[in-house]
Amino acid sequence: MRALAKDPARASTLAREALRMAPGHPHAILIEAQALRRLGKPRAAIAPLTDLVRRQPGLFFAALWELAQAASESGEAERAIAALETLTRQQPKVSSGWFLLAEQLRKAGRDEDAWRADLSGVHASSNDPELVKAAMAMNAERLDEAAALLEAKLARGAGDPPSLRLLGEIHWRRGEMDEALAYVEKAIAMAPGFDLARSFLIRLLLQNNRLEAALEQAEVLDRSPMKGPGNALLKASVLVQLGEQERARTIYEALLVDQADNAQVWQNLGHVHKTLGAQDEAVHAYRQAVTHAPTMGEAWWSLANLKTVAFDANDIAAMESALETLASETEARGEDVFHLHFSLGKALEDAGDHAASFDHYDKGNRLRRTMVLHDADDFSAEVAATRDTFTAPFIAAMGAGGCSAPDPIFVVGLPRSGSTLVEQILASHSQVEGTMELPEMMIIASRLQARVDEGEFPDFKAMVSTLTPTDRTRLGEEYIERTRVHRQSDKPLFIDKMPNNWQHVGLIRAILPEAKIVDARRHPLSCCFSGWKQHFARGQTFTYDLAEIGRYYSDYVSLMAAYDIAAPGAVHRVIYEDMVADTENEVRRLLDHLGLPFEPACLEFYNNRRAVRTASSEQVRQPINTRGLEAWKQYEPWLGPLVEVLGPVLPAYPGVPAGI
């Protein structure tokens, strides 16, 4: 057998010698057939293997496996299928037989049967002790041990889709995204019916913001003969991220025909209705969700987050009862609990009970803070490094470079600063397309920062200094290309409303020198308190502690002030209170900065029916009002930690403290 693997010609010679001495010896016939296949003569192996299968029960499985492979390599798919169907009936727990059968069925055009064979192979692999051992090691966070087991296993065989998928997950857990994608893609290339691997691949693609590729894979998954709501839900989530809300809504409504009590689907449908501006339908969907799942905290928060729903005494009682129910359960459901606290905070705020309201907001924030990572010291250090890099001399020394596309308008600032209002005003202009909070610039910035974190450069400034004009042009072009998927019109300009991009104003101007930057700013207490009482679906990890959000606001003011000095006029500032008090003049100033003619539609932004995904989606569908300007004053007795951290930033607003 050692000769067969290393020198099949030698194995063939030895087998023929054995057959001369013992004609018809079954093991010698099998070895010779195996050698012939390895020597590229599979057709010659078919006849002796067929005879062995028929008359040698002791070699039945080995001969049948070789016959299947020889027939496959000879292009005789039907003969291979017949052999493999017999083999998998007799040995259903051997995954390799199922995967080879799937391959042959696919060659024969029997795609659905092939898909089912792949799924059977995946199921059979659960009996593989090596795979189980590797999975247990991975789940125990012994990632190196798990990877070594799988790599050794793969080295012994031509292919093993479940091992490839598991190895991909190990790389993902290590944060090695490229490697993770490569392994999972290889797994589904070998077993296209491996639904769990394809589902995992879609999630990896979403994490990498490769939305078009994710949708392509989701379309394939949706065609799986193993129909399940999970596949449709995953496709809908991809469509939502692509901004195709109507298609997502169709999927959710179809699912509810057969699953009218599915609270998760009702909630997702509510999100789509909210984004599309169908408020009554959103309220109905969220109400259905909490009817079918009274402890579903996110659905209660989704109702509260509309900002226009008034909870009554029955709602408050229902939420308090839900908290009691959750408290009595043995398994913690922290997400439901903090969502309910945020919801009760909003309900009691509307009812005028500000002390009780603050108590619930505080409990929700404290619990949520335990679930997120945010290091205020590290963040302040990053901001300081950026501030010390993009000085006037440094910007001058960089010279020309970057992509000259004028398309992007970056609206930056803190969450709850009025940035969605600015976006809605601009998106009502005939030359400007509103998209959403796009992650592309943050992805580029994170990739550059990783070069510092991994030791390639001693600090941020050294890294940025190495970017040549060509490098900066390439990065700018990458941003334009990556954001193209979000543009659904031929308007020349588009808005990127990712608020956190204030951290990257220097980088934006370096790689996209013709892009415009608009800074939306709101009173520190108004902005920070509004952000603190807002639960965000993702990100914004600095908002769950009053002191930390105040420190973040101060870092923001410091960096933007420094950039105003380094590049005067590069950033246009919109003060929220000024926009509310003198809307038309502020809109005209904004459009002038962008080089756009005034259009009355910008003053009637609330009539714009575009999809809006942020927490302010319903507020920007109403005319400007002053209701929220001083909401923080009702909570002033409890805002001491925030006031203290803001320090001189607070009295200087809307200006900035001297020397900051």
UniProtKB/TrEMBL annotation:
GO MF annotation: an example: protein-tyrosine sulfotransferase activity
Chain segments annotated as coiled-coil in the UniProt record: none
TPR repeat segments: 161-194, 263-296
Signal peptide: none
Family matches, as SUPFAM superfamilies: P-loop containing nucleoside triphosphate hydrolases, TPR-like
Keywords associated with the record: TPR repeat, Transferase
The keyword S-adenosyl-L-methionine is assigned to this record: no
Origin superkingdom: Bacteria
Keyword Transferase (UniProt): yes
Stated name of the protein: Sulfotransferase
Organism: Novosphingobium aureum
Taxonomic lineage: Bacteria, Pseudomonadati, Pseudomonadota, Alphaproteobacteria, Sphingomonadales
